[in-house]
């Protein structure tokens, strides 16, 4: 069964930075990738779909000010900025999980204090508090979930699922076309690997 249909919108989900940064390289040069377009085509739908969204404060801090404004509209309703400061260096179980993720070969970045920190903190927080969903399009973070035993109960919500939620929310022809285009471009690695179908419609089990 397509994992898309297993998503429970009332269950907590923690979201990684890279989901909100999709297309940022072209944000100011191509209107199709502008923040307004992203907000209209999928961000609003996704931020409204999930009822219990967590963003780690490290992830929130990595976002640009304009994206933060979109997130801020939902804080206090269905979005919460979370922290692990009260656990860091004081809770042995949290530190065991954190270090296991931090030191994994796919996450370990000895020459950078910031690289992968959003993913590491988010996954450690999700594991410690039993959050079932982690949303990211970072392939390394997704692979870590499969390779670390403590993380195997966490279901990765890839960008293809995010686009699926937006598509199922409805909208005009232009929106559907934009979502299909985003799927082909930003889900291309998974498409090439044969992990997901070639089109968004196929992924959702619908006719083109």
Q: Which residue ranges are poorly predicted, with pLDDT under 50 across at least 5 consecutive positions?
A: none
CATH superfamily: 5'-nuclease
Strand content: 5-15%
Helix content: 40-55%
Can you tell me the number of structural domains? Answer: 1
Report what the structure shows.
The chain is α/β, with parallel strands linked by helices and 208 residues long. The chain has a single domain, classed as Rossmann fold, CATH 3.40.50. Helix content is 48%, strand content 8%. It has eleven helices and five strands. The chain has helices at residues 17-20, 35-49, 57-62, 65-72, 92-102, 117-129, 139-147, 159-168, 173-186, 188-192, 200-203; strands at residues 13-15, 53-56, 79-82, 133-135, 155-157. The protein has a five-stranded parallel sheet. Strand 4 (133-135), helix 7 (139-147) and strand 5 form a beta-alpha-beta unit. Helix 2 (35-49) packs across helix 8. The protein is globular. The two termini are 20 Å apart. The model has no long low-confidence stretch (mean pLDDT 92).
Sum this structure up briefly.
By secondary structure, the chain is of the alpha/beta class. The chain has helices spanning 17-20, 35-49, 57-62, 65-72, 92-102, 117-129, 139-147, 159-168, 173-186, 188-192, 200-203; strands at 13-15, 53-56, 79-82, 133-135, 155-157.
Descriptive terms for the model:
208 residues, alpha/beta, Rossmann fold, five-stranded parallel β-sheet, 5 strands, 8% strand, globular
């Amino acid at each position: 069964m397509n994992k898309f249909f297993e998503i429970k919108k009332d269950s907590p989900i923690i979201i990684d930075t890279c989901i909100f940064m999709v297309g940022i390289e072209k944000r100011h040069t191509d209107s199709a990738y502008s923040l307004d377009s992203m907000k209209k085509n999928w961000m609003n739908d996704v931020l409204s779909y999930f009822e219990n969204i967590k963003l780690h404060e490290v992830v929130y801090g990595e976002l640009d000010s304009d994206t933060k404004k979109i997130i801020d509209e939902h804080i206090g309703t269905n979005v919460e900025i979370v922290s692990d400061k009260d656990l860091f260096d004081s809770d042995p179980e949290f530190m065991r999980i954190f270090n296991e993720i931090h030191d994994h070969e796919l996450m370990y970045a000895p020459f950078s204090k910031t690289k992968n920190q959003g993913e590491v903190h988010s996954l450690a927080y999700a594991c410690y508090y039993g959050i079932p969903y982690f949303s990211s399009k970072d392939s390394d973070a997704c692979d870590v979930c499969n390779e670390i035993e403590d993380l195997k109960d966490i279901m990765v919500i890839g960008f293809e699922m995010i686009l699926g939620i937006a598509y199922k929310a409805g909208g005009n022809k232009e929106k559907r076309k934009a979502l299909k285009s985003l799927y082909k471009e930003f889900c291309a690695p998974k498409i090439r690997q044969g992990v997901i179908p070639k089109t968004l419609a196929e992924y959702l089990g619908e006719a083109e």
